């Protein structure tokens, strides 16, 4: 492990990525990079009509995440400072492979690789894995209006896509440590012991 690791927290919608990364940032005294979600002007339209608005939605996310990570390189990674992010930019491919089709998907893949192939990869990925019922309960609890009508089949497919993506990343980036957290049984928000076990493990991996 290098002296200043780059940590990413990942998982499907509702897994608790931002919550966990924020808690770890405070405990481990790390700067945090949070993805822009609610500011995306295409979210409402996307959930109403995925086919018509998926390309605009995915491009907005890609460009914003690219800019954030570009800034992260300058502010932290190049200076040898550890940092935690509540996403891995690879998530753009996870979502776009499901939402885009045909030539739009091909164009998006090309743009994605041009922008991201030379970006630094996380040293540690915390993968929060949870089943559909757990995710639906957490989504309902946080009460985002644009998520109220989310298709359950879409979310279930996303769970499976994330499992496949983590397997792919493990094969493609063998130096990256992927730590899987069982979101169905581990409650890092309500159970302090559960959280402290995660934090202790992450601290150990950073050393």
Descriptive account of the structure:
It is built from 8 helices and 5 strands. With 207 residues, it is α/β, with parallel strands linked by helices. α3 (50-75) packs parallel to α5 (102-116) and α4 (91-99) packs antiparallel against α5 (102-116). The longest helix is centred in the N-terminal third of the chain and has 26 residues, at 50-75. The model has no long low-confidence stretch (mean pLDDT 90).
In brief:
The chain is an alpha/beta fold. Helix content is 56%, strand content 11%.
Key traits:
Rossmann fold, 207 residues, 56% helix, alpha/beta, single chain, five-stranded parallel beta sheet
Number of domains: 1
Structural class: alpha/beta
State which percent range the strand residues make up: 5-15%
Distance between the termini: 7 Å
Spatial sequence of strands, sheet with the most strands:
2-3-1-4-5
Number of helices: 8
CATH third-level topology: Rossmann fold
The Cα radius of gyration reads 17 Å
Question: Quick one: how many beta strands?
Answer: 5
Oligomer, anyone?
Answer: single chain
| pLDDT averaged over residues | 90
Largest sheet: 5 strands, parallel
The helix fraction, in percent, is: 55-70%
Give me the CATH superfamily. P-loop containing nucleotide triphosphate hydrolases
List unreliable stretches of 5+ residues.
none
Q: What is the CATH class name?
A: Alpha Beta
The helix/strand order is EHEHHEHHEHHEH
The dominant shape is globular
| CATH architecture annotation | 3-Layer(aba) Sandwich
